[in-house]
């Protein structure tokens, strides 16, 4: 029930594409946050895997 | 090979070098302008589609082909494409992979010099001499006059002013020095320092911009909130316009430097068991971080907060207008603007130099392996060609016509061609199964199965459609809504003397590269190298 209310509230918030006098609208907020979060999380995940990887065994080199 | 064997020092180093090559002025200037003009937040839908269907898969193909060619003893696009495409056709098409970085270098160092000169203006003189008491429009006019005077746009030859020459000489010396020092001792070492420094500078400016609030209470519509709204509020009607999809694909494509001839060269110095899948994804993600998280929040937001939407929207169509004409006015109004202006232009200088370093390296590697030259000799020849190209662009500075001609034909048109050659060679000629097996050697991440379909069908078709749209939009003359005609690049080439001279220069470079490729092929055959890719490279 709580989930449904939260989802419904979020949906009605996000349906507001326009905002007052050109300010950042709820949909603008959502798109900005999702876009920025996506690239930040992807970058952090990639670097965590790169930096956390064990060095290759010497015998494999060459 | 007579040159000492080069290799990367660390895995992080090669990732930062590739990311440094990709992160350039387009991340901070072209992306926000593109997004604001093409649907704001809605632009991110075609943008991420292009990243998923074009940027990442073509990047993976380029990384894998480069490492494969490197194991055969080759480090240049002509040689590697000859191996992958099994013959002379691939080898000569690969010439484009040396032409692009070399010719783009002709003008890119000029932009690099502008950034360094503007940074110096803020450090030494507090800015470019704008009078804060005058109106915004007047300041933009003064800033425009300063930029056009400094870059010599009034007449050919007027770019040879003392200040620009000095800064061009400085950036040229930087580039030659680091390329001469080699991969691990020069480019990698510089990028390991420059990329984190660029991120710190960007985050500092971002923090300043997001805490500006409403700088002038007399203008409540000039605020950070309005700036973010202008940049991110979605206009979904733009999704039905082909131009929006074209702009998004072009942005991703040029931003990631795929099809540029750099990744294939850089990855050729990797060992067989070095990962390319996760490394390629990490380099792309780093580029996206700079583009979306920094470029998407700083430039337009700051411009709207101080200048308003009317003034900002006049400069979103041009990276140069936004950066060199509009932003100096923003910094003139910003508290601690001198400090943040210096940091901003220093960050752009770092973004430019990490890219320009990667542009000399492919030509240097090509000459060294095709003609059997030492690194010093190859660097000297490439420097000579680059200086000649720089002086050409510097002299023909009226309206930046030479710069624009190279940027369009080489930096856009040929990049599309090279990327198509690469993805078709990888998926169809070399073979997708074999290509993915090659990519998965030593991989820390498996390429998801859906990318088999994307690499074989979606990416080539998507690229072809975008390329046709790009040609349709840019080559013929177009009539604007107000009835005026915008000259296309074909009519410009037919009528403009500088555009014709620029093409003459490009043709001379192309002929020289083809001749060197032919000489190289004879040498490689005489050395018993597998230049036609007929032997397996499992050894």
What does this structure look like?
- The complex is a heterodimer of chains A (62) and B (539).
- By secondary structure, chain A is mainly α.
- Helix content of chain A is 65%, strand content 0%.
- Chain A contains two helices and no strands.
- The longest helix of chain A is centred in the middle third of the chain and has 27 residues, at 26-52.
- With 539 residues, chain B is an all-alpha fold.
- Chain B has 21 helices and two strands.
- Chain B has a two-stranded antiparallel ribbon with strand order 1-2.
- In chain B, a hairpin with a 5-residue loop joins strand 1 and strand 2.
- In chain B, helix 14 packs antiparallel against helix 15 (337-371).
- The A-B interface holds A 17-19, 21-25, 27-32, 34-36, 38-40, 42-43, 46-47, 49-51, 53, 56, 60-62 and B 11-12, 15, 40-42, 44, 48, 221, 223, 225-226, 228-234, 236, 271, 273-275, 278-279, 281-282, 285-286, 288-289, 291-293, 296-297, 309, 442, 444-445.
What is the assembly state of the chains in this entry? heterodimer
Largest sheet of chain B: 2 strands, antiparallel
Please report the distance between the alpha carbons of the first and last residues of chain B. Answer: 18 Å
The portion of residues forming beta strands of chain B comes to: under 5%
Helix fraction of chain B by DSSP (H/I, runs of at least 4): over 70%
**Strand-pairing-aware structural class of chain A:** mainly alpha
Q: What is the CA–CA distance across the termini of chain A?
A: 61 Å
Unreliable spans of chain B = none
Helix content of chain A: 55-70%
* Widest sheet, order of strands of chain B: 1-2
Q: What Rg of chain B is obtained from the alpha carbons, in whole angstroms?
A: 23 Å
What gross morphology of chain B would you assign? globular
Question: Which spans of chain A of ≥5 residues are poorly predicted at pLDDT below 50?
Answer: none
Query: What is the CA-based Rg of chain A, rounded?
Result: 21 Å
Number of strands of chain B: 2
């Amino acid at each position: 029930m709580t989930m449904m209310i939260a989802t419904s509230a979020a949906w009605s918030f996000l349906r507001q594409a326009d905002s007052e006098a050109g300010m950042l609208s709820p949909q603008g907020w959502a798109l900005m946050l999702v876009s920025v979060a996506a690239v930040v999380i992807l970058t952090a995940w990639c670097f965590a895997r790169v930096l956390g990887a064990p060095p290759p065994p010497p015998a494999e080199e060459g | 090979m007579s040159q000492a064997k080069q290799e990367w020092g660390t895995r992080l180093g090669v990732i930062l070098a590739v990311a440094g090559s990709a992160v350039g002025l387009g991340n901070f200037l072209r992306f926000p302008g593109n997004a604001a003009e093409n649907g704001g937040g809605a632009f991110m839908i075609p943008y991420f589609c292009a990243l998923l269907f074009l940027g990442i898969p073509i990047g993976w193909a380029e990384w894998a082909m480069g490492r494969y060619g490197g194991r055969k003893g080759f480090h240049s696009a002509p040689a590697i494409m000859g191996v992958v495409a099994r013959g002379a056709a691939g080898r000569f098409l690969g010439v484009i992979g040396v032409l692009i970085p070399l010719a783009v270098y002709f003008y890119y160092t000029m932009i690099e010099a502008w950034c360094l000169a503007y940074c110096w203006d803020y450090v030494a003189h507090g800015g470019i001499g704008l009078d804060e008491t005058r109106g915004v429009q007047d300041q933009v006019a003064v800033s425009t006059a300063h930029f056009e005077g400094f870059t010599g746009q009034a007449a050919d030859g007027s770019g040879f002013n003392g200040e620009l020459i000095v800064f061009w000489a400085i950036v040229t010396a930087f580039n030659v020095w680091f390329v001469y020092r080699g991969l691990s001792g020069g480019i990698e070492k510089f990028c390991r320092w420059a990329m984190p420094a660029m991120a710190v500078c960007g985050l500092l400016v971002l923090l300043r911009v997001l805490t500006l609030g409403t700088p002038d209470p007399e203008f409540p519509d000039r605020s950070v909130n309005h700036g973010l709204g202008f940049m991110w509020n979605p206009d979904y009607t733009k999704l039905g316009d082909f131009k929006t999809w074209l702009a998004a694909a072009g942005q991703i494509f040029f931003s990631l430097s795929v099809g540029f001839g750099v990744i294939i060269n850089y990855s050729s110095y990797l060992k067989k068991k070095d990962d390319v899948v996760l490394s390629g994804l990490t380099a792309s993600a780093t580029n996206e971080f700079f583009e979306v998280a920094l470029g998407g929040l700083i430039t337009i937001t700051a411009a709207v907060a101080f200048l308003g939407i009317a003034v900002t929207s006049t400069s979103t169509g041009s990276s140069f207008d936004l950066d060199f004409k509009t932003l100096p006015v923003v910094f003139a109004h910003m508290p601690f603007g001198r400090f943040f202006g210096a940091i901003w232009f220093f960050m752009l200088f770092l973004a430019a130099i990490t890219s320009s370093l990667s542009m000399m390296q492919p030509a240097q590697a090509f000459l060294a392996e095709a003609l059997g030259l030492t690194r010093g000799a190859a660097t000297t020849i490439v420097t000579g060609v680059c200086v000649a190209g720089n002086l050409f662009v510097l002299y023909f500075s009226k309206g930046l016509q030479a710069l624009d001609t190279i940027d369009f034909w080489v930096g856009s048109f040929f990049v599309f061609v090279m990327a198509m050659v690469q993805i078709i060679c990888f998926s169809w000629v070399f073979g997708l199964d074999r290509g993915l097996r090659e990519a998965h050697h030593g991989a820390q991440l498996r390429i998801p199965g859906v990318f088999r379909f994307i690499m074989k069908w979606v990416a080539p078709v998507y690229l072809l459609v975008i390329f046709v749209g790009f040609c349709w939009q840019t080559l013929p003359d177009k009539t604007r809504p107000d009835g005026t005609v915008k000259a296309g690049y074909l009519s410009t080439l037919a009528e403009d003397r500088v555009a014709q001279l620029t093409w003459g220069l490009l043709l001379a470079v192309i002929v020289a590269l083809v001749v060197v490729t032919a000489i190289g092929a004879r040498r490689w055959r005489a050395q018993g190298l597998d230049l036609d890719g007929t032997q397996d490279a499992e050894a």
